[in-house]
Specification:
single chain, eight-stranded mixed β-sheet, four-stranded antiparallel β-sheet, 13 helices, 21 strands, about 25% helix, about 20% strand, globular
């Protein structure tokens, strides 16, 4: 049987196409060139024609793509990866579901037992709505793909060598067990199901703490007691994911959903607003990092032809909002969701998360899964590589000791990041010129550092720019322009270094908001959008 292997490579000022025809009686040998061109330097341009026919399309990278399997089989599959690749993979559990099922994740990295300094952590979460099942499979396929192709792809080798992946295929195994797949190629598919929620009938993507509505100080550096306070009354799955998020310095994240085909970025809701059910006249609600968020969303969309071109929106039920321009949208501009996981990530931590709706059909027939993997594989690879965009570095004292819980701020962007226990920081930035400063409790602010972030070549591995801030000890003085009062991040009504008594728009708790609203006239939606875009009313440095 004849199989054509065709790949195209375009780089810089030249392009060429090479075709190989291989005929064998009993086996097909695929010929790969270990060159920059034939690896994923332009990863999405390499296509294989005739590689799978109707009888073999289900089998790829040594696994069967045309089956879901129950939760126990998923765990066995993850464990098998650790057995097959012991130096690169390990599994762990973040907790249990309501019915006691294990919330099992897999970690993949070149040194999986200990993260290298400044190695960014990336997480992917699937199936938080039990009947939205494609993400569950994509995450497992992605884990297998990284390990299977480590020695055959320069692009994947770079990712595994320089990134620590934390992959949670299902956050809601109880809901998944209640869900049934649709008939093959159904159009439209079943859109509402009892399996969406967890076993207590709670929607997990409405169950996270909402920024500016929790009566907790120091949200960005939660102490143990505050984390427990935030967890109180929430579902056991939500509590487990919150702890996982808050105790690891994740840099980039995505959570997978179904019911539409679009990449959605924060914010998901207007602060203090009501969740819209009928999606009437929603308004955009943007973060200080919207430029970077849009780049992240567009990176995913443009490598998925069905998402970018909106070519499968006919399978979605009416009213989903499709088609979406370029396959991306701001969450609040689509419809409001209060208590979402992506808003929690951005509002309470350093992690930038987007929500990926990857299928009109929430629970498609298993025979359709290979097509979803084909459409999303390059998107996931490119998206996760964005953990290396922007800058990263460490904050140290005069003796070179690393300082944890320091602030690093881009001037003109009110969303600071905090350093890890090892004094590390990461800030995902789009191309451009930036100025940064750092400060920590008991230290003078650093001198400003200017950085230039160049344009990224699509698919070409590149590491983030590395910067080092050294801070000098300061004598505490409430009127010192370089000293941030203790506790470091008590930003609700503190006397800021600028000597202006302000309340940050990011971390106002409900009690202070009530008092503030009595003193100020109600803002129009236009005024509110200006305020809540994290404008630099507060200059920390």
């Amino acid at each position: 049987r004849l199989h054509d292997i065709v790949f195209a490579c375009s780089q810089s000022n030249y392009s060429f196409t090479v075709t190989f025809v291989v005929e064998m009686r009993t086996a097909l040998f695929l010929i790969f060139f270990d060159s920059w061109c034939s690896s994923e330097a332009n990863i999405e341009n390499r296509t294989f024609k005739g590689l799978f026919d109707n009888n073999t399309k289900c089998f790829n990278d040594g696994i069967n793509l045309c089956e879901y399997g129950d939760h126990d089989s998923l765990i066995r599959n993850l464990e098998k990866l650790t057995e097959d690749y012991p130096g690169f993979a390990r599994t762990g559990s973040i907790g249990k579901s309501v019915l006691g099922q294990d919330l099992r994740f897999i970690v993949i990295s070149k040194n999986v037992q200990e993260r290298d300094i400044l190695e960014p952590m990336v997480k992917l979460v699937g199936n938080m709505h039990g009947d939205e099942t494609v993400g569950r499979q994509l995450i497992y396929y992605f884990a297998n793909h990284l390990l299977f192709h480590y020695n055959t792809s320069n692009f994947i080798k770079f990712l595994v060598d320089n990134t620590e992946f934390h992959l949670l295929p299902t956050m809601n195994p109880d809901g998944f067990e209640m869900s049934n797949f649709s008939p093959q190629n159904a159009s439209p598919c079943t859109h509402r199901s009892i399996a969406r929620k967890n076993n207590n009938r709670v929607d997990l993507n409405r169950n996270f703490p909402r920024v500016k509505s929790e009566n907790v100080k120091n949200l960005h550096l939660l102490q143990r007691g505050n984390l427990q306070l935030l967890q109180r009354g929430r579902q056991i799955e939500t509590q487990s994911v919150m702890k996982w998020i808050m105790t690891n310095p994740f840099v980039l994240s995505a959570n997978f959903h179904g019911g539409a085909v679009v990449a959605n970025y924060p914010w998901d809701s207007q602060f203090g607003g009501q969740e819209t059910v009928n999606r009437v006249a929603p308004q955009p609600f943007l973060t200080a990092d919207t430029k970077s968020f849009k780049e992240l969303a567009l990176t995913y969309s443009k490598h998925n032809p069905t998402m970018f071109q909106q070519s499968t929106s006919d399978r979605c039920v009416p009213g989903t909002g499709a088609p979406f321009k370029n396959g991306i949208i701001n969450g609040a501009a689509w419809y409001e969701v209060r208590g979402s996981m992506q808003d929690f990530n951005y509002g309470f931590t350093n992690c930038m998360e987007i929500t990926l709706e990857v299928s009109c059909c929430k629970h498609p027939h298993p025979q359709e899964l290979p097509e979803f993997w084909k459409n999303n594989m390059y998107s996931i690879l490119h998206f996760t590589s964005m953990a290396h965009m922007g800058i990263k570095g460490v904050v140290v004292d005069e003796n070179g000791g690393r300082i944890s819980n320091a602030l690093v701020k881009v001037i003109g962007n009110a969303k600071f990041v905090t350093t890890s226990k090892r004094g590390e920081f990461w800030k995902l930035l789009s191309p451009g010129n930036y100025t940064l400063r750092a400060i920590a409790d008991g230290y003078n602010a650093s001198d400003p550092i200017s950085v230039y972030i160049p344009e990224r070549r699509d698919g070409v591995p590149s590491a983030a720019d590395i910067k080092r801030f050294q801070l000098k000890s300061a004598t505490p003085s409430p009127r010192s322009a370089n000293f941030l009062p203790s506790p470091l991040l008590k930003l609700c009504g503190i006397q800021c270094p600028s000597q202006t008594n302000v309340v940050t728009d990011q971390f106002v708790d409900s009690t202070e908001r009530t008092a503030k609203n009595k003193e100020e006239p109600k803002k129009t939606s236009i005024e509110k959008s200006k305020v809540t875009n994290f404008v630099d009313k507060i200059v920390l440095f």
